[in-house]
């Protein structure tokens, strides 16, 4: 009996110990969650929520659905083969009258004009001569006001625009649109097809800036890596110094330096390189120069972090075995910096394609990038759909590049 009691007592002690361990682990998890909760809320409120809102705005389509609920409901069962029935025309008259009273006509006509440019005129003309209750046939009365109401294409466009979600803005960002008459996606008109060229210009400028940063940053990073620690730390302060200066101040300084009567043009003329001032600002040359200066530290720092970890005796061993110093550097040292090259290049390119301030201040009209048009649609025309669509496409490109960046830097982290 005593042995059995001892075994039972041991089981109870083991159970109590396990319970205490679970309680301790639960308390530890709760403390950990409490510590990361502020950071999680910060990321959620400041990053996840704005990005999610932007992505939703690129497909959100509330204008027609909100201003014309009865017409939207009537068109939901319309097949589009012939003109809608009398009930739909009655709903249209009622919705237009209510929208005018509620101050929704401007947003409504603006949204419908995206589908068919002269839809705004049709809405305005119809409101001036809106049929009253005395009209026997609302269909005939509306067609008499404007022949557009007798055209199936306008009704198809109205039904297309009445959907709660729309691909219009994303298609427009890719220079395409949905043709209500054909019922398919077609290329936009040549005078409206600008966004593919803008994206190409953005990636082109980003690539040029990245290459220049690589050509300038690689020697600097190598020099910092081979210098003694004291001198290297002192020079690293010079690399980090631009981070402590306002971006607008640095950009304005380049405007002063690059202008026709600026220091660079005066120096070139004094040395006899040019006879007259050359245009270096408010064009693509100025944009590339200023952006290269701003983004150069983002190339140097990843390269320096990789080069600092490369043992110098590798190159010396190759030279001692008979290799030329340049061959030893190119075939032994440079391959070990590939992770830094890829990380710095992709990081610089990602930052370059999203730049706004520097191209807006230093560049001309033909040098503006996607970010400029996002700001234009946000601040000037208040077209949140187009701004969100352009921003979403730029975000997708950035995320894809970030995935590549993560994969290329993973071996360095593992090492």
From TrEMBL:
Alphabetical list of InterPro entries matching this protein? MetI-like, MetI-like_sf
CDD domains linked to this entry: TM_PBP2 (cd06261)
Example GO biological process term?
Answer: transmembrane transport
**Where's the ABC transmembrane type-1 domain?**
199-405
Source domain of life is: Bacteria
Q: Does the keyword rRNA processing apply?
A: no
Where exactly are the transmembrane stretches of this chain?
32-52, 203-227, 234-257, 287-307, 341-362, 382-405
UniProt organism field = Pseudomonas abietaniphila
Q: Which protein are we looking at?
A: Putative spermidine/putrescine transport system permease protein
Subcellular location per UniProt equals: Cell membrane
Give the Pfam families listed for this entry: BPD_transp_1
Which PROSITE patterns did the record assign?
Answer: ABC_TM1
Matching SUPFAM superfamilies: MetI-like (SSF161098)
Membrane topology value: Multi-pass membrane protein
Q: Which family does it belong to?
A: Belongs to the binding-protein-dependent transport system permease family. CysTW subfamily.
Q: Any idea which UniProt keywords this protein has?
A: Cell membrane, Membrane, Transmembrane, Transmembrane helix, Transport
**What GO terms fall under cellular component here?**
plasma membrane
């Amino acid at each position: 009996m005593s042995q059995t009691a001892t075994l039972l007592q041991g089981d109870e002690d083991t159970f109590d110990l396990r319970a205490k361990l679970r309680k301790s682990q639960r308390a530890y998890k709760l403390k950990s969650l409490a510590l990361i909760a502020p950071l999680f809320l910060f990321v959620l409120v400041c990053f996840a929520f704005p990005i999610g809102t932007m992505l939703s705005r690129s497909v959100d389509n509330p204008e027609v659905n909100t201003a014309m609920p009865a017409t939207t409901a009537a068109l939901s069962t319309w097949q589009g083969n012939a003109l809608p029935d009398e009930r739909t025309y009655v709903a249209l008259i009622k919705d237009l009258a209510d929208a005018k009273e509620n101050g929704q006509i401007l947003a409504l006509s603006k949204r419908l004009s995206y589908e068919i440019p002269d839809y705004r005129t049709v809405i305005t003309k119809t409101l001036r001569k809106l049929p009253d209750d005395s009209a026997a046939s609302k269909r005939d009365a509306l067609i008499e006001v404007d022949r557009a109401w007798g055209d199936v294409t306008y009704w198809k466009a109205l039904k297309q625009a009445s959907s709660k979600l729309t691909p219009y803005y994303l298609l427009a960002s890719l220079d395409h649109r949905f043709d209500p008459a054909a019922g398919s996606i077609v290329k936009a008109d040549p005078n409206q097809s600008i966004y593919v060229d803008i994206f190409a210009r953005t990636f082109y400028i980003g690539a040029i800036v990245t290459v220049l940063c690589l050509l300038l940053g690689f020697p600097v990073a190598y020099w910092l890596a081979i210098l003694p620690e004291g001198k290297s730390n002192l020079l690293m302060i010079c690399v980090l110094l631009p981070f402590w200066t306002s971006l607008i101040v640095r950009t304005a300084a380049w405007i002063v330096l690059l202008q026709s009567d600026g220091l660079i043009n005066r120096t070139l003329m004094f040395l006899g390189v040019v006879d007259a001032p050359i245009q270096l600002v408010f064009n693509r040359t100025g944009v590339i120069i200023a952006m290269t200066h701003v983004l150069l530290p983002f190339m140097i720092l990843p390269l320096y972090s990789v080069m600092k970890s490369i043992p110098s005796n590798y190159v010396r061993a190759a030279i001692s075995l008979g290799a030329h110093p340049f061959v030893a550097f190119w075939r032994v040292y440079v391959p070990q910096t590939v992770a830094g090259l890829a990380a710095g290049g992709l990081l610089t390119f990602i930052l370059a394609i999203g730049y706004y301030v520097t191209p807006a201040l230093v560049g001309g009209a033909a040098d503006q990038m996607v970010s400029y048009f996002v700001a234009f649609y946000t601040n000037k025309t208040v077209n949140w759909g187009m701004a969100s669509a352009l921003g979403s496409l730029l975000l997708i490109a950035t995320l894809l590049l970030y995935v590549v960046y993560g994969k290329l830097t993973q071996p360095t982290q593992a090492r």
